[in-house]
Amino acid sequence: MEDSSLSDGIDVDKGFAIAFVVLVLLFLILMIFRCVKLVKNPYEASSTTTDLSLS
Fold it and tell me: Is 53 among the domain residues?
């Protein structure tokens, strides 16, 4: 008694899981680039916060 169109279509749970994994991977890639920038030049990356406290 199952509808055959549901079994032939895309599984909604699988779609949400794939979208979640893709968003997590994009977030991790973004964080990796920010951390590399911070390691390469820590003073330039944190200059906006220190300028306000020094002046």
Answer: no
Which residues are CB-neighbours of 6 under 8 A, at least 6 positions away?
none
Helix residue ranges per DSSP H, the chain: 4-8, 12-40, 42-45, 47-54
Q: Give the amino acid at 27.
A: F
- What is the percentage of the chain residues whose pLDDT exceeds 90? 49
Number of structural domains the chain divides into: 1
Whether 49 maps to a domain, the answer reads no
On whether residue 26 sits in a domain, the answer given is yes
This model's pTM is above 0.90: no
